[in-house]
Amino acid sequence: MSAHGGASLMERLTSLSSEPPECPICSERYDPDQEDLVPRNLSCGHSMCSRCIGRYMSTSGKTVDQDIVMMCPNKCSRLTTIPGGNIQNLPKNFPVMEMVHTRQFERSKSQATIQSSCIGEYYCDVCEVSKAEVACPSCAVSLCFTCSSEIHQKKGYQVHKLVAMSDVLDGNLDIQFTDGMLTQRSFSDPEVLHAAAAQPKMCRVHSSELVEYLCVSCSAEVCKKCHLVDGHRGHECRLLKDVAHEKRESLRGLLAAAQEKHAVWNKGFDRCQELREASNVRRTELERMIRTHFEEVRAALVSREERILGELREEMQRRDQLLSAQADHLAKVCEIAKDLCEEVEEVIDGSDSQVVHRGETLGGQVEQYIRSEQDTNPVVSDSILAQFTDKGELLQLTERLGELKFPPGRVEGVRVKSRGPSEVKVSWPALSSPSISAYLLEVSSGGQPYRVVYEGPQIEYDADGVATEEDVIFYFRVAAVNAVGIGPYSVSVSYTKKKACFLWDPNKRHPKAHISNGGYTVSIGENATWVSVGTNTVLSHGCHYWEVILEKYGAPSLSRKAVIGVVAAGFHQWHRSHGVIGIKTCPIGNRSWGLACGTAKKLAHGSTFFNSLGRKHNLFREGDAVGVMLDLSQHIMSFYRNGKPLGIIFDDVHGPVVPAVSFCRHKALTLRFPSTPPTSPAPSRHFSSPSLSRHVPSSPAASRCNAVVRQTARSLSTNAIEVKGSLTTPVGGGTL
């Protein structure tokens, strides 16, 4: 790890530990190879990257004879003229660019030296004579005991964590090179890992200074020198430990809420798994019962078929025997008659003596034969009457052999219509199932439990007598009922009986804020001073919703732009400048709650909660509607962007409060009150109505669906069955 050379100790340590020059505005490292990160000089002598110059030029620059004049962002009050409005016309800071190239070369050389030395011997990077015994990942150097005791006892190096080289050689310490720095990745010893993670962070600009502050204006971590002397002087800075403490408390609250939500979801997961297992068991049981039932029905049909066929065979056998005996008798009679006729013919053809002698006898026999009577008609009839059940009736009867019944489906498309201040109608489409016996309409307001207001077969209801309170949001939901039970409830639909009608109050504003559009719009001109404006209405209870339209807002950037929220009703210092909702240094910030539109940070009681909604993904833009839903019964305030929920931002809002905004520069904000607010999260407390109990079967499986196999017809089965079973209610069904 040693590279022989004549550089001094401090030069070597500086080349290894100092970071490349950075832009004082965005704290990004300069990079001559990227146009946006090229350092350029202003007329005042300050330097910054091309990207920051372009950003400030577009927001605060003024056009003068095709040139753009802008003020230095470092607050030196010097103006810089950008010829033709082209940033590339500003001179580059070549010394800084050369320094960047030098630092990059030195770091790559140090990294190559360290990496190549890892293969062979390990020597001290300072004296280059003694073997290295320890390594400092913060400095990216390996040291002998003598040099480490000399160097790391000085101010700025005492906080560095030294690691034994034996740990590196034994594989107990993994190392990696990032931007030329030797850093720790993982340790086999947990104590070493914890100590390395707790190591204080050094300033990227002043490498010997600890990071102690957070620049709120730039969202950058800085040291005391940066805060008091260099690029962040005059910016709003806070102690890093205070911000970290607030963030930890916020994270603890979020963690507790997430753990609580996880427990609810895990419980739902367990219920789903139990339901799946119970459903599989119940399905197997029902399949066995259904097969048994129809096997018995089929056995009865086959038995009846065999019995009828047996009767047919017996009857045909009896008839065959009778006809056979009759045929045999007639055959004998015919034979006798034939012989007698032949004998008579012989006598007739004989001599006279034969005729005289035998004629008398034969004549008597023939007369006797002629007088005899023989039954020549068949002794049985060939007709058989076959009677069967009509096929149509039989097929209809088979449809009633068995039937499964389930709860009704979910009602979709619930709508609330208002034709006037006293005409409110709730309607929903009828379900296609013919077994629906009734519909249940429930209502809730202000976080109260749902209660039944209608029960019957109709698919619409006049809710004039229900939604009576003004400026209160009501939630309606519908469920269908049949013989099995209650189906799942529909999505809650919200309704406000009367439009909220508060306006911007001329007595609750800064003198530079202008109210227009009948009191709905408030605006401010070219002024960097933050001002606040309140409304003429105090909200003390109930659930309320309003929107603020960002009429003039500008391109999104990482600044607050505007803060929208509420202020305690007792606040009276609206005329004071630099008043921002939720900011600690402002009188208005102590008892106020607001959301910064530019950064998506929530501000409350003087505390800033960073990245509350994701700084880069939830910024508002010009023309957006910022919706605010305030539920004072549950002390929560939710925000919306163009009707889409952003979630519950505050859960500690207590009335009475006044809706308010804080903003600066060239902006215009307009109030709007939609008659149908977006659906908020359902009230936190839900109870099923007592009137629903009579719709649920009274058996022990009352909360479950009944699968009924009904009794078959007696004429088709000798063994009638009635099978009754239960299926667990689906997760989406029943009362919530």
Automatic annotation (TrEMBL):
Subcellular location(s) of the protein: Cytoplasm, Cytoskeleton
Compositionally biased intervals (Low complexity): 682-700
Domain B30.2/SPRY: 482-678
InterPro entries for the chain: B30.2/SPRY, B30.2/SPRY_sf, ConA-like_dom_sf, FN3_dom, FN3_sf, Ig-like_fold, SPRY_dom, TRIM45/56/19-like
Domain B box-type: 119-165, 198-240
Record has Cytoplasm as a keyword: yes
Superkingdom of origin organism: Eukaryota
Entry annotated with the keyword ATP-binding: no
Annotated spans, Disordered: 674-700
Key words of the record: Coiled coil, Cytoplasm, Cytoskeleton, Metal-binding, Zinc, Zinc-finger
UniProt main location, coarse: cytoplasm
Domain Fibronectin type-III residue range list: 407-500
GO MF annotation: an example: zinc ion binding
A Pfam family assignment: zf-RING_UBOX
SUPFAM superfamilies found in the cross-reference section: B-box zinc-binding domain, Concanavalin A-like lectins/glucanases, Fibronectin type III, RING/U-box
Domain RING-type: 23-73
One Gene Ontology term, aspect cellular component: cytoskeleton
PANTHER family membership: BONUS, ISOFORM C-RELATED, MEIOTIC P26, ISOFORM F
Name this protein carries in UniProt: Tripartite motif-containing protein 67
